[in-house]
Design a protein that fits this description.
- The complex is a heterodimer of chains A (85) and B (566).
- With 85 residues, chain A is an all-alpha fold.
- Chain A folds into two domains: 1-37; 41-75.
- Chain A is built from two helices and one strand.
- The longest helix of chain A is centred in the N-terminal third of the chain and has 24 residues, at 13-36.
- Helix content of chain B is 71%, strand content 3%.
- Chain B is built from 22 helices and three strands.
- Chain B has a two-stranded antiparallel sheet.
- In chain B, a hairpin with a 2-residue loop joins strand 1 (50-55) and strand 2 (58-64).
- In chain B, helix 6 packs antiparallel against helix 7 (183-196), helix 12 (287-318) runs antiparallel to helix 13 (334-347) and helix 15 (372-398) crosses helix 18.
- Classes of the chains: A mainly alpha (85), B mainly alpha (566).
């Protein structure tokens, strides 16, 4: 990567950091909003402050971690079904 | 001449024939005009039009228009226009003809008023779409097409058996609400379920779709499963098993989608996940839930079509589709990148994009009817969608590390097709009334209130946060060249190896028996064993089999006539 220095805005680590920072800030604002705005509650679990942010984060981490474990069990070579039996 | 009684599938069926005999700009014009004219014609048709035909003493209803079939009719014309525009540069008569015939039969299926007419369209739909898989002509396309076709035929056979059984039971062939009671209804339920991608019956989607051409997959992803959603909504609204089947469909594919390398297969898994929301809504069965299911089917054709088109464009331009081979394409395909991201935002149900306005209906319906556990599972699935379809697809194709691939932007017609879908995604998302006025049941619903918008945005942003967190910590599973074992393992590995083992055991047993013979007789056996074979199995020309099948059918026919006459 380093020998062909790309001039693209997105390739610069500083800019990638900027994008990540703006996501962190947006998430922070959204979490704060949850404490300020009185949203409607339909299901008991929703009463937990920050339910949706916490659920979204945890759900995705769990999803990826389980999927990674599944790889140990399910992953085979690309030509798995092509091999003569 | 141009009356409401002209069946809606006719323009596309005629175009399918013309596509075989025309070439060049004339064929392009015919293929583009057919869905436009057909769609305009359909706009002038009001609910309530019914066409009956009489065959002997059997009255069939090949064409029946009501609000439920109309919205699918509009949708299929819209989808056909977009997919045809996307495929316009293809020079392959077989593909064009199969695609148009496929769309025509899907349109026929949603307007079929009785189960026999439905069966006919159902089968044409299955057969014509198999040609789109075969059109891939790549390594494995032929076998994948046959496996795909087996599922379609199985669905057709179940539909036929269920229809006849239902006819015997009720004396009625018309296709209305069937409800889950008795064997016939379960056969029909399974027939629709196969094409709707029920769990364990889903494999034809993830096996067949990625084997098709860059443009063929776009057609495939739009029609079969949506016709099945229509059939379920027509036949089994409020059938409770559907709630739980839909829940499983929404949840299990997202795990596979995270570790799958072929980005079109990721989309195929993601499609089963979206179908889960529709199936679940049909199971809940209230007006809100059914509207949500139908509306989501409408939106899915647009956003899944858009995502499939963007991946089709990538495959068309680079000849690569594995996440492990791609990356950094935004530099050479910036327009495709933007369009793909619109599709990604739509499928993830960001507010202002169309997925939001229909998925929230199903979610609200689940809460209203007290399915809180299912609701929680669907919320998990909704967060997961963003993860694998919303982020993974654009990220690994267009961003990630630079793969070094330099190509050009997709052809103009492909970009236009994607643009049409993208505009519709945003238009429906920001003006949901455009879609809501077409929905079949009367129910006032507004997705845009503070709670919905806030909670959905939170869910999605924190899902994105999880992705970034996992990625920066190096915990995100890398894209690897691999095959992941799914249910197909049963018939692609277990069954063949079991058959092989059995046949080698039989051979060993035969050799063991020969051992018992006196040594002098053994050469006698090998020399004369042909004599031992039965007359029919000595040679097996296909012709003799066909002849015997014909004889068998003739006997059945005559015995049927005599029984009826007696």
């Amino acid at each position: 990567m380093s020998e062909q220095k790309s001039q693209d805005w997105l390739d610069k680590p500083a800019n990638q950091r900027k994008i990540r920072m703006s996501l962190y800030i947006a998430c922070g604002i959204l979490f704060l909003l949850d404490l300020i705005v009185k949203r409607k509650v339909y299901v008991a679990a929703e009463q937990l402050p920050g339910f949706y942010p916490i659920f979204g984060f945890v759900a995705c981490v769990v999803l990826v971690l389980i999927a990674k474990e599944m790889r140990k069990l399910l992953m085979r070579g690309e030509d798995y079904y092509d091999v003569d039996r | 001449m141009w009356t409401a009684e002209i069946p809606a599938f006719l323009p596309l069926a005629i175009a399918a024939v013309l596509a075989l005999v025309t070439r060049g700009w004339l064929r392009s014009a015919i293929m583009l005009l057919a869905p436009v004219l057909g769609g305009l014609h359909l706009l002038s048709v009001d609910p309530g039009v019914v066409v009956h035909i009489q065959i002997l003493d059997l009255e069939l209803t090949p064409y029946r228009v009501d609000r439920l079939s109309l919205i699918f009719g509009y949708l299929f014309h819209l989808g056909a226009f977009i997919a045809v525009l996307f495929a316009l540069q293809v020079r392959d008569s077989m593909q064009h003809c199969a695609a148009l015939l496929y769309v025509a039969s899907a349109i026929g299926a949603v307007f079929a008023g009785d189960l026999l007419s439905l069966f006919v369209f159902w089968e044409v739909m299955g057969l014509s779409s198999a040609f789109l898989v075969w059109a891939g002509r790549g390594p494995g396309s032929a076998e994948a097409g046959i496996r795909y076709l087996l599922f379609q035929i199985l669905s057709g056979v179940l539909l036929m058996a269920g229809a006849l059984w239902h006819w015997v039971n009720t004396g009625d062939l018309s296709f209305n609400e069937i409800g889950l009671a008795g064997g016939a209804s379960w056969l029909l339920f399974l027939a629709f379920g196969i094409k709707a991608g029920f769990p364990l019956l889903h494999n034809w989607i993830t096996d067949g779709y990625p084997a098709s051409t860059p443009t063929g997959t776009v057609f495939l992803c739009m029609f079969t499963t949506k016709a099945a959603v229509y059939a379920l909504a027509r036949g089994f609204p409020g059938a409770e098993p559907l709630v739980y089947i839909g829940m499983v469909m929404a949840c299990f594919p997202i795990f596979y989608a995270v570790i799958e390398n072929d980005l079109r297969r990721v989309l195929a898994y993601s499609m089963i996940n979206q179908l889960g929301f529709m199936v679940c809504g049909i199971g809940v069965g209230t007006a809100l839930a059914l509207n949500g299911a139908v509306g989501h089917a409408f939106n899915d054709v647009l956003f899944k079509g858009l995502l499939m088109m963007s991946m089709g464009a990538v495959l068309y331009m680079t000849d690569r589709i594995n996440g492990s081979d791609l990356g950094g394409l935004y530099k050479s395909m910036p327009k495709t990148t933007v369009l793909c991201m619109i599709g990604a935002a739509s499928i993830s149900a960001f507010p202002l994009f169309n997925g939001f306005v229909s998925k929230s209906m199903v979610m609200s319906a689940l809460v209203n009817e007290g399915y809180h556990g299912v609701w929680l599972a669907m919320l998990f699935a909704a967060a997961g969608v963003f993860h694998h379809a919303g982020i993974k697809i654009p990220y690994f194709a267009f961003f990630h590390h630079d793969s070094g691939i330099r190509t050009q932007e997709a052809p103009l017609n492909m970009l236009l097709a994607m643009a049409v879908a993208a505009v519709l995604c945003i238009a429906i998302g920001s003006q949901p009334q455009l879609l809501y006025q077409l929905l079949p049941y009367d129910y006032d619903y507004s997705p845009y209130d503070v709670t919905h918008v806030l909670t959905q945005t939170q869910l999605l942003f924190f899902s994105a946060l999880a992705f970034v967190w996992l990625n920066t910590r190096g915990m995100y599973p890398p894209e690897l060249r691999s095959t992941n074992i799914d249910i197909e393992w049963l018939w692609r590995r277990l069954l063949p190896s079991a058959a092989l083992r059995i046949s080698s055991r039989l051979a060993a047993a035969r050799d063991g028996l020969l051992e018992l013979l006196s040594p002098a007789l053994r050469p006698e056996f090998w020399a004369n064993r042909k004599l031992l074979q039965l007359t029919l199995s000595r040679q097996w020309p296909t012709g003799s089999m066909v002849l015997w099948v014909a004889v068998f059918l003739a006997v059945m026919l005559f015995s049927g006539l005599f029984v009826k006459g007696a």
